[in-house]
Amino acid sequence: MHLFLALCILAVNPSICKGKDEKKCDVVPKNNYIEVGSDINITCLTCSHGEIYWTLDTSRLNSSHTVLSLRNFTHQSATVQCHSTDSQQVIGGTTINTYSKPCNISCIWHQLDQKTESQPDQFTCKWDHQIDPKLDVNYTVLHSSAQREICKTRQTTCTVEGVITNMLSDIIITVRAKTADWEVDSDTREFQPAHIRKMIPPHLIVTSFADHLLVEWKRELIKKKCRCEVKYNETKLNKALNREQHGNMTIEHVESCSHYTVSVRCALLEPAPWSDWSQEKTVLTKLNKNHVRLRLWRKVAEPQKNGVRKVHAMWKEIPSTCRGTFTYTIEPTLYKEAMMGGNYTETLCGESGCDVEVNQDAHRINLNMFHNETLLVVNAVHVPAIGESLPQVTDIQTSALEGVILVTWKAPIQPVSGYMIDWTHDGNQYNWKETNYTNATLSGLLDKKPYNVTVTPLFVDKTGHGTQALQICSRVGGPGNVTIHINKTNAKNALVSWDVKSQEECSGDVVKYIVFYRKLDRLELWLNVTVIGTEQSISLEDLLPDTQYEFYVKATAATGTTKSTEMFFKTKRFGRWFITTLVVCGGVVIILVLSLGLGCAISWKKFREKPVPNPGCSSLALWSPSEEGTGSIWQFNNPSESICDRVYTEESQKTSTSPLGSGLNPNPAFYQTDEYIDPDMASAPETDPEERLKPAKTQHRSSPNDSIEPLLPENSPCSPYRSQTSVENPGKRPNKQNKHSPVKQPDRKTPVMVYVTLDMFEQNQCK
Q1: Domain termination site, one of 545, 576, 607
Q2: Together in a domain, 227 and 182
């Protein structure tokens, strides 16, 4: 155990000794604060790392020396690092922070009481300081060369209360800024007391007249020259005052019956600061007769059947701020008689309009305005006669932009004194203006309203005919509200439609519709299809069966877009083609089933109605061997009958494979058929071959030897069947099975006896 400890001590001791001898690798000095624009040297302790390079923040500097000199450093904060060129490792680094000194120092010498001028009792200084707002900086204001502290603050302004001594000589001010890491003084600033003294506001008096305002003010510091500034309705006028002089100013070109707000301020000669603004005075100007502009105009309605026309006279009313009582009267006169003078009936009117009736002749409408029962203004307007040939403007054009309507037209050939433009949006409330140009701008319009604009040329004592432009909107709004509908849904498509209804009179024409749709899943992306503005329906294709979808429609016009609310629909499980195919196939199957059933019914009916062969109508015949196998036997077959309708005798049934029974060739070379042979036929002499070739005669036996026995029970009243035997008594016939074996064909055929059915379907003909 002791040996192990000794070895550990020996292993660690060299490294400890080595660490004591090595130099520390770093960059000095650390975390410096320097003034903006100053210089600094930074040293890198390389510890034999070879060549180095420097970086400033993320930029590499063009220096490989161990001492880095930074000149005119202006960064607010930056990190400088020393790197090894060989290993690219950072040897050390430091952070450099800068600070600035206070600047733009300004001071004023003023008094707290702003009503009576006296010795100033406050001294306030302000300055600028560009620093990090997070820093905690303490400011100290130092006065004169002795650097006496007069104010401390953490803000960039400081006020000293009370009278400061030595204010008769120049004042030297320095501002010191101090933090936990640095301290800096501003540049000294020298002020003269007269240049920083602030006057108190003057006392203001304002008097209003019909055509001007008289502004007067009094200042307390009367023994010194000063400059003053008068402000009224955002307008400023300057005036200089000498010693022992109070101020006054006349404000001309004021509007009648208008309010004016006036204030004034003064200061000693520059660069002394301005006093505060005096208390504002608001006055109302009186009515100036020369400023009254009624701007009389008229709108003439279409004539009635008797030629009477209704004329709506309108004028600009006197502002309500004008004091006194105002009355208006209208006096319509014939144009010819008005030029010669005369008395006519007057109509008392309201404040801004009046209606009178005139005939088809030209008239002159006179407006009289009385102020406090004294005639103040007389104005007149001309009304042309019906059909009177008078000039009018042509090619009138209108355009709208951002709520303003621009009107242009071509002047008539005759010289004019001006043009009157009137416009209305409802036919009741009119606006009008006079111009000497062939264009006019109409402003102050209601938003998104259609306007009718009329231009009328004016002459010295007459008016021409008015020309009305096409109706135009002050501003065109969006395309209106979009309402969507679901017309029809199938398995893979859906027919949707929409309509646009605008609550505004001026809505933009739709350029296109965009239909957005997607599966009812917020993770799905919206699909869209674009439709031209004249279409209002579309079929959404390639949908999934039995799936819910959501969709909406966005209408786009040149003036904006509107969007409908979202609506949902679900596609059907099966499509129309599937249902159609299913119906068609079902119909075909039903038709086939009905046809098959009908066929079976008909066949069953035929089967039930088919007559059963009557063996009672059969007979027997003998055939010679020579006739066997010939085609004469087919004479007894009914071609229309089925082979199933034949009735065979007992022998034929027993030998169903014989040639006669099957209707095949009876003489195969390799078959021999054993038949029952009548002994009498066998013992009879051989007949002539020609006789044998003659067909045998059918013999109908009706003799008593024929054994006719009912096949039905004996107690049956009748039976259509009878037992038939041959003419000869054949005796007992053995019952043999047909044996088929290839044998040699015999040379001579022996006669055989067979049963043949004849006329078995004839009714009531049995003999």
Answers
A1: 576
A2: no
Instruction: Find, among 497, 496, 492, the residue nearest to 576 by Cα.
Output: 492
Separation between Cα atoms, residue 78 and residue 73, nearest integer Å: 10
Final residue of a domain: which of 99, 122, 137? Answer: 99
Tokens representing 38 are 């100053």
3-state secondary structure of 673: coil
Contact 140, 158 (CB under 8 A): no
Q: How far apart are CA 548 and CA 260, in angstroms?
A: 69
**Length reported for the chain:** 767
Give the pLDDT band (50/70/90) at residue 608. confident
Residue 765, C-beta contacts closer than 8 angstroms, at least 6 positions apart: 617, 759
Owning domain of residue 142:
103-191
Alpha helix segments (H runs only) across 114-210 = 193-196
Report how far residue 752's alpha carbon sits from residue 651's, in angstroms, rounded to the nearest whole number: 11
**What per-residue confidence (pLDDT) applies to 168?**
64
19: which 2 tokens?
A: 């660490």
Asked if residue 635 belongs to a domain, the reply is no
- Is 181 in a helix, a strand, or coil? coil
Amino acid at residue number 119: Q
Q: What is the mean pLDDT of residues 287-306?
A: 88
Rg, C-alpha atoms of the chain: 67
- Clarify whether residues 255 and 210 are in a common domain: yes
Q: Measure Cα distances from 734 to 2, 590, 723, 737, 751 in Å.
A: 141, 59, 19, 10, 17
Q: How many domains does the chain have?
A: 5
Query: Residues 600, 608: contact at Cβ < 8 Å?
Result: no
Q: How far apart are CA 699 and CA 696, in angstroms?
A: 9
Report the alpha-carbon distance of residue 302 to residue 468 in Å, rounded. Answer: 14
State yes or no: cis peptide before 271, omega within 30 of 0.
Answer: yes
Residue 98 vs residues 56, 68, 78, 92: alpha-carbon distances, Å: 15, 17, 9, 20
Mark 507-540 as b/e (b = at least 16 C-beta within 10 Å). bbebeebbbbbeeeeeeeeeeeeebeeeebebeb
631: its two tokens: 């085609």
How far is residue 413 from each of residues 393, 396, 575, measured CA to CA in Å?
Answer: 9, 15, 74
161 and 175 in a common domain: yes
pLDDT of the residue at 22: 47
Q: Which residue has the higher pLDDT, 346 or 410?
A: 410
Kindly state the average pLDDT of the residues 63-82.
89
What CATH number is associated with residue 71? 2.60.40.10
> Is-contact 13 20, C-beta < 8 A?
no
Asked if 530 and 513 count as a contact pair (C-beta separation under 8 A), the reply is yes
> Do 241 and 270 belong to one domain?
yes
pLDDT tens digits for range 187-206: 999 988 888 999 999 999 99
C-alpha 639/C-alpha 430 separation (Å) is 112
**Phi, psi of 586, rounded to the nearest 5 degrees:** -60, -40
Contacts for 185-193 with beta carbons within 8 Å, 24 or more apart?
185/101, 185/142, 186/101, 186/102, 186/103, 186/105, 186/127, 187/101, 187/103, 189/105, 189/107, 191/107, 193/109, 193/167, 193/168, 193/169
- For CA atoms 623, 627, 633, 636, the dihedral sign is negative
Regarding whether 269 and 312 lie in a shared domain, the answer is: no
Q: Give φ, ψ of 740 to 5 degrees.
A: -110, 120
In the predicted model, what is the mean pLDDT of residues 519-524?
79
